[in-house]
Amino acid sequence: HVESVAWIAERKDCLSTLFAMATIWAYRGYCLHPSARRAAGVGLWFTGGLLAKPMVVSLPLLLWLLDYWPLRRPLGWRRVGEKLPLFALAAASCVVTFLAQQSGGAVQDLRIPLAPRLANAVVAYVRYLGELLWPVKLSVLYPHPYITGTPWSRATVVGCALLLLALTALAIALRRRRHLLVGWGWYLVSMVPVIGVVQVGVQAMADRYTYLPFIGLFLAIVWEGRALCAR
Questions:
Q1: What are φ and ψ of residue 110, in 5° steps?
Q2: pLDDT digit string, tens, across residues 10-50
Q3: How far apart are the C-alpha atoms of 196 and 109, rounded to whole Å?
């Protein structure tokens, strides 16, 4: 997370995450004492996060995960409906961001076909997990393998896909330990905007992208450690 903290150009990571945490804090208040004023507060904090950095567009889905745990609210269409204003803000932010990046020549979709983008996305999910466990050989730029002419092998992509499926199946199988499912879901969902399906720039991945997604994994790890120590 050095990039997010040390680079002045990436202070937006810290700022957007601050707004994201404020949104969650306000959402908890809304859940305890629902009111139009508290709902407006949630939307205001979320708007601040989007203006700081659009990566927080996944926050409405993260709030839905938090409904499952630790808020333990009954899930259903009502929970989706109350977040529709947030989804509308997220959709508007996605459109504006895409048009802005496209006008600046940063969108590489036409240059990199869909298949290599999807393959790199699968591998990137696993590479980020590796950085969480053993953060070595970090770099300010990880060039996209398609651009460098060294695309990921089929075996690598399939292996990473199977690992992700296995971890997802494990989280679902252990769903009674809700923190594991929510933590893993947080990681998968919050990575979607920057995982590279819509390619912006020439990078295959970037360490700064993990600033928000790793919160879910750390949450799962710490809570599981607490549960194990309590036995």
A1: -75, -25
A2: 889 999 999 999 999 999 999 999 999 999 999 999 999 99
A3: 9
**Tokens of residue 26, six digits:** 């306000």
Asked if 216 and 147 sit in the same domain, the reply is yes
CB 186 within 8 A of CB 55: no
* Torsions phi, psi for 78 (to 5 deg): -65, -40
The DSSP code sequence of 17-81 is HHHHHHHHHHHHHHHHS--HHHHHHHHHHHHHHHHH-GGGGGHHHHHHHHHHTTS-PPPSHHHHH
Pair (59, 141) in one structural domain: no
Task: State the Cα–Cα distance between residues 63 and 69, nearest whole angstrom.
Answer: 10
**Domain extent for 86:** 1-104
Question: Which amino acid is it at 144?
Answer: H
Structure tokens at 154: 């089929």
SS (H, E, C) 89-133: HHHHHHHHHHHHHHHCCCECCCCCCHHHHHHHHHHHHHHHHHHHH
Report which secondary-structure segment, H or E, holds 142.
strand 142-143
Is the preceding peptide bond at 85 cis, omega within 30 degrees of 0?
Answer: no
